[in-house]
Amino acid sequence: MRSRPIGFLLATLAGAVLALGGTSAASASPSTAPASTASGDVGTADACYTWGGTLREGSSGEAVRQLQIRVAGYPGTGNQIAIDGAFGPATRAAVTRFQSAYGLAADGIAGPATFNKIYQLQDNDCTPVNFTYAELNRCNSDWSGGKVSAATARANALVTMWKLQAMRHALGDRPITVNGGFRSVSCNSAVGGAANSRHMYGHAADLGAGSQGFCGLAQAARNHGFTEILGPGYPGHNDHTHVAGGGGRFWSAPSCGI
Questions:
Q1: Which of 60, 103, 106, 252 has the fewest CB atoms within 10 Å, i.e. the most exposed one?
Q2: At a CB cut-off of 8 Å and minimum separation 6, what does 133 contact?
Q3: pTM reported for the whole predicted model
Q4: Residues 125-183 pLDDT 10s
């Protein structure tokens, strides 16, 4: 976990400007050259990922998928949005909740105000400003040896971090302590993890109590895209709160009323 200066570049996009509506593309690298911008277009270049135009229900492609990663923590209680590049009703609802959480016009359409807020929330490696890849992987340096490819495990961990960022904001922007995340099969075996642990997929994080307490974290996690929540009262989880994404849903923290 960290707090550090916002890693985004205040520069305008080079090249053609996308018109509003429909499917929108984006550039994966920033530009420092000035460009003309029409009303409603995004005029900020970001060192991680730059959106080139407005996205709305019906849009599709990589720009939508990148947006879905950033709003994955706003699916509504008990839900999880697909990271599939298709801007459907669930994505619109998540964008609306994200906008509302940050005091933006909550219309479910991702335009300049929404993207500029995201730029403020992310670092140059695309992680949210308050979490790091290192926190989500205390097993090895290359994300290898799990139940999925290293690239998939790392990508899953990025989604997990954005869910944690949403949860952190909902809890008053108080720091959340991450004790661990991804585990290779050997790391998981060494700590006595379950044979089907979601840690081996990069989906999971174990959280320390912090100022919110284990129950406060477990209760908040229900609203931020975590399909697996284990905490006080569940065997082996009285000293941490476990949260994870992935298929199915299993919540158990009996001491917290879950």
A1: 103
A2: 125, 127, 154, 157, 158
A3: 0.84
A4: 999 999 999 999 999 999 999 999 999 999 999 999 999 999 999 999 999 999 999 99
User: Can you tell me the distance from the alpha carbon of 11 to that of 20, in angstroms, rounded to the nearest whole number?
Assistant: 20
| Rounded Cα–Cα distance for residues 228 and 206 (Å) | 11
C-alpha distance from residue 157 to each of 101, 136, 140, 163, 172 (Å): 23, 7, 14, 10, 23
pLDDT at 78 over 50: yes
Q: Which amino acid is it at 189?
A: S
CA–CA dist 216, 218 (Å, integer):
6
Closest C-alpha among 107, 105, 113, 74 to residue 90: 74
Catalytic residue status for 242: no
For the record, the structure tokens of 132 come out as 């790091």
Which position among 169, 203, 237, 242 bears the catalytic label?
Answer: 237
Q: In the predicted model, what is the mean pLDDT of residues 223-231? A: 98
